[in-house]
Amino acid sequence: MTEDVYGGTFRFVTEVLPRFGIEHSFVNLSNLDAVEQAIQSNTKLIYIETPSNPRVGITDIVGIVDIAKANNCLTFLDNTFMTPLYQRPLELGVDVVLHSATKFLSGHSDIIAGLAVTKDELLGSKLGFLQNSFGAILGAQDSYTLIRGIKTTSVRFEKSTETAISLVNYLVNHPLVEEVFYPGLPSHPGHEIHKKQAASSGAIFSFRLPGKAATKIFVENLRIPVFAVSLGGVESILSYPTTMSHAAMPKEEREKRGITDGLLRFSVGLEHVDDLLADFEQSLEIVTTHYKESRSLI
Questions:
Q1: Angle at 106 between CA 202 and CA 215, to 5 degrees
Q2: Fewer beta carbons under 10 A from the terminal one: N or C of the chain?
Q3: What number does CATH give the domain 7-150?
Q4: 97 strand-pairing partners
Q5: CA atoms of 4 and 58, how far apart (whole Å)
Q6: Neighbours of 18 (CB within 10 A)
Q7: pLDDT tens for residues 253-275?
Q8: 3-state secondary structure at position 263
Q9: pLDDT tier at 221 (50, 70, 90 boundaries)?
Q10: For the chain, what is the mean pLDDT?
Q11: What are the b/e assignments for 27-43, b being 16+ CB within 10 Å?
């Protein structure tokens, strides 16, 4: 499993699966040599999340698929950040693609839904059997709402991505911002790989401010975005991974993955780009003023 994984997935793998005798290894999946070395005699699955949450890390899908096939392993891939519009893992050889359909596919933060997709008939029937056994299905109203949301995914995602690029370009040039994580940036370690396997840079980025105090002031003074754990909605959503999406991850594990107290994740919605830029600017200006006055925001 990729090291840079969603906090809820980390909790499931570390706290639930061991009860069923299922072992796991966390590996930096951007390092194909490390992946090969981590394969054991009982390895059955390689779990990919690309772009990953929260630092939008990139994994070479074809490279991992080749390793998996050579070792008789399945590949599962969480494609929530890209959707099938902009990244098509099944066509790259992945066995099962997963989506939190709550996010971009639905797009309105009003349902909770998950999708598991495969083009392998046998795998599909096995998944269908488990779904039927557990009763893990959407109700009629949620199914209708999701289908309706999917119809506008393209126009929503395109607009949000366009705005994301403008915000990222602003943040990379701001003196208070220590680091920006976005696959559309040429400086991003996975930039070239992402360009080969995806048709968009996406509408999610993360950035690092100098410490918890600076982050707190920034969040408290930002006016437009919702401060929440979700993403992919028509409203912009700002989250603090340390205490939200990755709260289930122990502090030492978070910090090992670069999820520090200064890290924020931003999911761009459909607000006007000028409004969002102005909001970022005024909030960062307040942080800068506090920093100059107190020198205690680290």
A1: 50
A2: C
A3: 3.40.640.10
A4: 77, 117
A5: 10
A6: 11
A7: 777 778 889 999 999 999 999 99
A8: strand
A9: very high
A10: 94
A11: bbbbeeeebeebbeeeb
The residue that leads in pLDDT, 295 or 133, is 133
153-294 domain in CATH 3.90.1150.10? yes
Residue with structure tokens 């991992």? Answer: 64
> Can you point out the beta strands (E) in 62-194?
74-78, 96-100, 114-117, 179-181
**DSSP 8-state secondary structure symbol assigned to residue 119:** S
Q: Give the confidence band of 246 by pLDDT, cuts at 50, 70, 90.
A: confident
Distance CA 127, CA 213 (A): 46
Tell me, what DSSP letter sits at residue 75? E
What predicted TM-score, i.e. pTM, was given to this entire model? 0.93
* Per-position b or e across 221-257, b if 16+ CB within 10 A of its CB: ebebbeeebbbbbbbbbbbbbbebbbebbeeebbeeb
Q: Name, in order, each residue with C-beta under 8 angstroms of 151's C-beta and a sequence gap of 6 or more.
A: none
Domain ranges of the chain: 7-150, 153-294
Q: Which residue has tokens 């978070």?
A: 254
Lowest average pLDDT, out of 21-25, 85-89, 258-262, goes to: 258-262
CB 280 within 8 A of CB 167: yes
